[in-house]
Amino acid sequence: MAIIGIDLGTTNSLACACRDGKMVLIPNPLGEFLTPSAVSVGEDGSIYVGAVAKERLVTHPGVSVASFKRFMGTGRVFCLEGQSFTPQELSSFILRQLREDAERFLGEEVTEAVISVPAYFNDNQRYATKQAGKLAGIHVERLVNEPSAAALSASRISGREEGCYLIFDFGGGTLDVSVVDYFDNVIEIIAVSGDNRLGGDDFDRLIAEKFCETRGMVYDELEAGERAELLRLAEKCKRGLTVQKQAEFIYGAGGEAFHLTNVELAEMGQKIFERIGQVVSGALSDSGRTIEEIDEVVLVGGSAKMPAITFYLQAYLGKKPCVIGSPDEIVAVGAGIYAGIKERREEIKDLVLTDICPFTLGTNVVNYSDRSNPVMSPVIERNTILPSSRTRTYTNSYDGQAHISIGIYQGESYYCSENIELGRIEMDILPKKKGEACFSVTFTYDINGILEVEVADLQQNKKLWKTLTSGSVRVSEEEIEERIKEMRDYKLMPPGGIRTMLVQARGERLFRQFLGRRREAVAAVMEQFQRALLETQNDQQIIKLAKEAEAAFDALEG
Ligand code: AMP
Q1: Which end of the chain has fewer CB atoms < 10 Å from its terminal CB, N or C?
Q2: Which listed residue (7, 229, 296, 454) is catalytic?
Q3: How far apart are CA 282 and CA 175, in angstroms?
Q4: Bridge partners (DSSP) listed for residue 35
Q5: Residue whose CA is closest, atom 21 of ligand 1?
Q6: Is the pLDDT of residue 472 over 50?
Q7: pLDDT bucket at 318, cuts 50 / 70 / 90
Q8: DSSP per residue over 377-444, as a string?
Q9: In this predicted model, what pLDDT tens digit does every residue of 160-178 receive, in sequence order?
């Protein structure tokens, strides 16, 4: 029985296991490590996960979905083919796929996983992630913060046992910067900062807009389909700039090639870089460290591969960021190392993991200018190292007050109403003159995200407490068991035919996208592929045919 590490990403997910002291990435049936975090429901109710589902986002948008990690822990429901799924249910399909891939690859049953989550994930989001594991038939005892996993991975790969790391995680739509200490086998996140509306997608849009500008077109006036095609070409061009100084693309039949260099992209991206700079300085200043005290700047996430990003960070920080391993894989490898520790594999030393509380937890105090709108009194502040227990004392706010209502809030806003209310404790107190009553509020927050709140009336020696495990998205154990059974009825597509399905799905997407000669060419490739399939049962031959069709599609996509 194996325990694996999983990076359950917004765009892509991947799994890693520890074998003979080495970290092994798990390939999916296509032989790739990255599985797109996309889900699609087929007409017969079967579930497509990964590359095929990603293609179907274009051809079958009503029954396909991606980026649902953004909605974890919210009440959002996705309706696909008349069936409703929560984000954790959709995530469970990804986890199940990764688990099945791992079982096939390792030749062992996978019963448990360590899953990485963004450091800023709140209680509900963490709970939803664990539920996703449960629904996928995987026990998830431990979640690890992505920056901790990245730091662990970086330290192992670089051979630097100890150090202070700045983890720069730049994905498609989010930027997360964390400062992480790794000393004496203790990993500690010192500070986190981020912008969840900033990522590689902004560069795609920038390139698309620049293209329109040079062609006298207005990006916002393009039709949805035209915009999608232009963005796809822009993204490809951006990736091209990772491996070469100049890249180009042609939009529309007979169009002129649009050229772009890394230097031009860097100039165009000034506003994006400014925002990146703000997040990086925020993390550094919250951590109380200077850049000289940072041993390594570690690049994580697909967009961190962009040379323009490396140049910018080097200039901004005065320190060359290092690429330790692949930015796409570093978190999964870290989660795999944690999984190895859990399995108590001898090859890995025991590690103490500490986490930080990524958000502020507090209670309400009276707002004298508007009593109906209480303000937040922080008890445990964001970036506090966990486990943590803090007490604050409060007093009555008016003469003869006989009752207090202690709200428990999470968030950084001044007004409680703008933060998330996690719970409430009601307590009767002895009526006294304003300012003479005295009661304490203690928050104890442990490493598994369980918050205990105790309210004590110090004069009456009376105590009340609450353990917060319930919230808007919580469901009872019975409901979960019921849903687990239902989820088992959904069949994931078998691994055997996945390559064929991918050719089919991609062909359908291209047929929809192209017009004229290229559309005819797609149809011809599809027809030829389908005819050839009828003539063979040989797996190797099928793979060869699929690769040929893929190459033909690559050439057509340009
Ligand atoms: P992630 O969420 O970490 O998978 O990152 C996805 C983002 O990384 C998307 O915006 C991709 O366009 C971008 N990306 C992936 N690979 C590359 C690359 N080789 N060069 C530039 N950007 C990339």
Answers
A1: N
A2: 7
A3: 12
A4: 13
A5: 239
A6: no
A7: very high
A8: EEEE-TTEEESEEEEEEE--SSTT--EEEEEEEESS-SBGGGSEEEEEEEEE----STTT--EEEEEE
A9: 878 999 999 999 888 999 9
